[in-house]
Specification:
heterodimer; A: two-stranded antiparallel sheet; 13 strands; B: alpha/beta; Rossmann fold; binds flavin-adenine dinucleotide
């Protein structure tokens, strides 16, 4: 089985983000970036299948400028066999990303396309579903458990009502949730080995994909601040405050 | 130009969910011509409930056994076909897991971009939405002259009142339905407690609660004051509570009048889920816990002493 897995570079989840004073976005220069945590879980899953013999080849794919190569190297250090870097300096919104991933999937013919359920920068939560729609493939989003076998995937999804299980024919797009696994720590020899693995660079235009009409960002601002809070010293004081507000 | 808005109903177990009413309220800020589309099996009661939502003009019910379980691959082509036939300018869904799964598939089939998590409307194509777990808000402008697909951040809206009387009509679409996706099961914890996403009071526990057994005191106190129960990711990961109780960036985003949390440190990913709560009360034994920076009322102390004391004080 062949697996494609998408890898997005995003500001590290531990960073307290700063809004650019001119409202153009968040400050990205000089800020620590890493692989979107959901993508790390997707990569980990693919590699576990490689290790147990379920997967024969795992290919990491990314869209973005030169800096994205760093996250592709990380994916290779996890154990991906090779990587494809679709190069562009432009913003890539989900519909455009989906068109690119469609083209890559048509070229690579994977049995499974694994993605993060959302990227923690834009929190769009769209790309996987859009890619599945473009390909006419089934989708199973927010996966916390995936069983592969017999041309099918049985996927348990974290939904508002609880845990839903779907059975989908392969090829399919599956987007992963946090509880699917805990990604490993990378060991130095693997990081060294990754340096020798191939990353294929591809110009965006080579794919014959058109960028979608963009959603423009007008301005970015900080969320409204909550009013200052108070500390109380006793349970009685707390209860009195809540009664004052008719909350209990 | 006048706009025609289609809201996709979210429902479960034959009941219309409150999230649909919230999406209708958002739709009301876009225009006055609002229809609701119910895709269901035996969905008459759901459609009737949707027809009572104030501001809704018409409810369309596509009743089909294939729609018994909400699978995006099955629903999306029907929605795209229906929206095209009906000349809709906007299609909105709630940002519940139903809408999150479905709406991007709808947008991609229609080959239009999508706006996730609309939290404020500036105009028919201009919206505010949160990014970076709500640590920044962007105003975005979507292309005009094509279908606009969006999900509505339910925590930002109150549900439309249930005093309307829209018409209900059966509908069909020509869409071809795929057979590559099959529903297997839904594991759903039955509970008499209020629903976490719509409750006016929520009591949450974190890693500090320590175990599944210890959560009992959280449930008991919640029951006493009629609250729903939530949790941090750490509490879910540790197996103290099921996943559907997770509050935060990757769990549920809620806006209760009262949010009271015990043994939760206040990671930004957790705070993302509670920014719209009316009053946030934090109980934590660590006076430096970041949760106190956002709490309206904070109390430093051991939750195992404080919960019983609270319990006694409200009895
Ligand atoms: C409304 C809006 C405004 C924007 N404004 C800006 C802006 O001002 N500045 C700016 O720099 N960018 C902007 N973007 C683009 C943004 O940086 C993202 O690249 C794009 O929106 C993808 O969104 P997401 O990653 O949240 O998608 P999601 O759908 O949340 O991503 C899900 C998954 O898809 C995969 N994926 C998505 N994109 C890629 C990729 N490029 N490479 C590899 N895998 C990927 C990953 O596996 C990811 O986990 C904007 C996007 C939107 C929707
Ligand atoms: C991509 C991503 C997405 C995430 N999404 C979410 C999300 O949606 N929701 C979420 O919650 N988290 C999310 N997280 C995890 C988040 O970063 C934190 O790890 C998590 O919220 C911590 O949970 P906690 O506060 O219960 O645990 P901890 O941070 O361990 O805090 C426990 C607290 O309990 C206190 N405590 C201990 N014992 C007692 C006692 N006896 N009495 C009183 N106080 C006590 C301690 O002082 C401490 O402050 C996400 C993380 C990532 C990377």
């Amino acid at each position: 089985m062949k697996i494609l897995v998408s890898v997005k570079r995003a500001i590290d989840y531990n960073v307290r983000i700063q809004i650019a004073p001119d409202g153009s976005g968040v400050v990205k220069n000089g800020v620590k970036h890493s692989m979107n945590p959901f993508d790390e879980i997707a990569v980990e899953q693919a590699i576990r299948w490689k290790e147990d013999g379920t997967a024969t080849e795992v290919v990491a794919v990314a869209i973005g400028d030169d800096t994205v190569a760093e996250q592709l190297r990380t994916a290779l250090a996890f154990g991906c066999d090779r990587a494809i870097h679709v190069k562009t300096d432009d913003d890539v919104q989900p519909l455009t990303a989906a068109r690119v991933f469609q083209a890559l999937a048509e070229r690579e013919s994977p049995d499974l396309f694994l993605m993060g359920k959302q990227a923690i920068d834009d929190d769009a939560n769209q790309t996987g579903q859009m890619t599945a729609a473009k390909l006419g493939w089934p989708q199973a989003t927010f996966a916390s458990k995936i069983e592969l076998g017999d041309g099918r995937a049985t996927v348990t999804r974290e939904v508002d009502a609880g845990l839903e299980t779907l059975s989908v024919d392969l090829p399919a797009v599956v987007t992963v949730d946090l509880r699917l696994n805990e990604p490993r720590y990378l060991k130095l020899p693997n990081i060294m080995k990754a340096k020798k693995k191939p990353i294929e660079d591809m110009a965006f235009d080579e794919l014959g994909v058109a960028a979608a009409a963009p959603i423009e960002t007008v301005t970015t601002k900080a969320p409204p601040k909550r009013g200052g809070g108070v500390m109380v010293d006793t349970v009685d004081e707390l209860v009195a405050k809540l009664k004052e507000k008719s909350l209990i | 130009m006048s706009h025609k808005i289609l809201v996709i109903a979210d429902h479960h177990d034959g009941q219309l969910l409150d999230a649909t009413g919230r999406a209708v309220t958002c739709a009301g800020q876009l225009g006055a011509d609002i229809d609701v589309l119910v895709l269901a099996h035996d969905g008459q009661a759901i459609a009737d409930a949707a027809a009572r939502l104030a501001g809704v003009a018409r409810v369309h019910l596509v009743d089909n056994p294939a729609n018994e379980h909400p699978m995006a691959a099955t629903l999306a082509p029907q929605i795209v076909a229906f929206a095209a036939d009906g000349g809709y300018s906007h299609v909105l869904g709630p940002n519940t897991t139903f809408g999150k799964d479905l709406m991007p598939r709808v947008a991609a089939l229609a080959d239009v971009p999508m706006v996730t998590d609309v939290m404020a409307v500036h105009g028919p194509y201009e919206f505010d939405r949160p990014i970076y777990a709500g640590n920044a808000i962007t105003t975005v402008r979507a292309p005009e002259g094509q279908l606009l697909v969006a999900s509505v951040r339910c925590a930002s809206y109150i549900a439309a009142a249930a005093n309307g009387h829209a018409s209900v009509a059966p509908a069909t679409t020509e869409a071809e339905l795929p057979d590559h996706t099959r529903f297997v099961s839904l594991e759903h914890a039955e509970s008499d407690r209020p629903d976490l996403q719509t409750a006016s009071k929520v009591i949450s526990g974190g890693r500090g609660v320590g175990s599944e057994e210890n959560f009992r005191i959280v449930y008991d106190f919640a029951d006493k004051i009629g609250a729903a129960v939530g949790a941090s990711r750490a509490a879910v990961d540790a197996g103290y509570v099921p996943n559907d109780m997770q509050v935060g960036q990757t769990g549920k985003i809620i806006s209760p009048e009262l949010y009271m949390c015990f043994g939760i440190s206040g990671a930004i990913q957790h705070l993302a889920g509670i920014k719209d709560a009316g009053t946030i009360v934090a109980i934590n034994k660590d006076p430096e816990a970041p949760i106190f920076e956002i709490a309206d009322i904070g109390l430093v102390g051991d939750l195992f002493e404080i919960i019983p004391a609270l319990d006694a004080a409200v009895s």
